[in-house]
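Model: You mentioned two targets. I'll fold them one after the other.
Researcher: Yes, keep them separate.
Model: Target one:
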Amino acid sequence: MTTPSEPETLRADRQILLALAPPHCDGLGLKHLVLAGLTWLETNHKAVNALNVFPVPDGDTGTNMLMTMQAAYAEIANSNEAHVSRVAHAVAHGALMGARGNSGVILSHIWRGFARGLGNEASFSAEALARALAQASDTAY
């Protein structure tokens, strides 16, 4: 019988920890998620433009959302803030200040609702994420 290598043991230990404690996302994790959303929009904004349906059929929804997300991310790009609600509020502020077109304004409202939904939390769990997303949806409507 062979004994597991150290990386295999560390991987197993990590899987056990993840199974026992629900994962949380802090401000640095949210920063990475915002960057992932921005990267997706950079890659796909033309496809979103081609949808040409929301909120007004003007053909620049993806571009406006991209510019809004660029402004939102710029607000936190140089931040090392670990407190998730502070990061979320900074993203919301950046999105509002850089909102372009109707779709950008709606996107900024989504971020504002998301930040409000987090309250003053230092990090969030899946349950808190669901609440923040529901608040984001309510705010946008």
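Model: Target two:
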Amino acid sequence: AYMVWAGWFASAFHAPNSPYRSDELFKDWLIKVEEDKVLENDYMIEELRQIRDVMDFNKEGDVLQELNLTNDAGEEFCLSEVIDGKTLVLFVDANCPSCLEALTENIKEDGKKKIKLVAVLANGGKYHVKNITEQLPEEVLSKWNLVWCRDRELEKGKKYDLTQLSFRMLVDADGKIIKAYY
């Protein structure tokens, strides 16, 4: 029964606007489950540990963690350098069809509110940008700044929750997270 619940819960935790993301009482419960050794299954213990750890970073009100990025022209820069006013930062997997759909769906944000759009490829590289440009129409691509992390920094630094892509964050001109959408 726990495995079924945990499978459901992981999906609910990563759902858009999940209330669990910022619930300190829930985080305390996760810590207590681990301390009391309620679970004997190492996989489930690790799953809950990852969920607990994700709750510690990139919360609304935090400053977006810095990333070193590259664009398809080979230019290197920091994430803070592409934030200009309100910016929607969308993290995507270049090989994921639903992530490509997210690029199309999120251009609506730009038109309504004049928000800059930045797509960070979690598994990025020039090849992946080419893959995306071949699959999406120009009217969608023209709205986005497509960038990727150098040296797979997202995976190494554990700076962002990559367990459920795509996810997005709306940030202000100072890089402060206004809203996190998972």
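Researcher: Noted. Anything on target two?
Model: The two ends are 26 Å apart (CA to CA).
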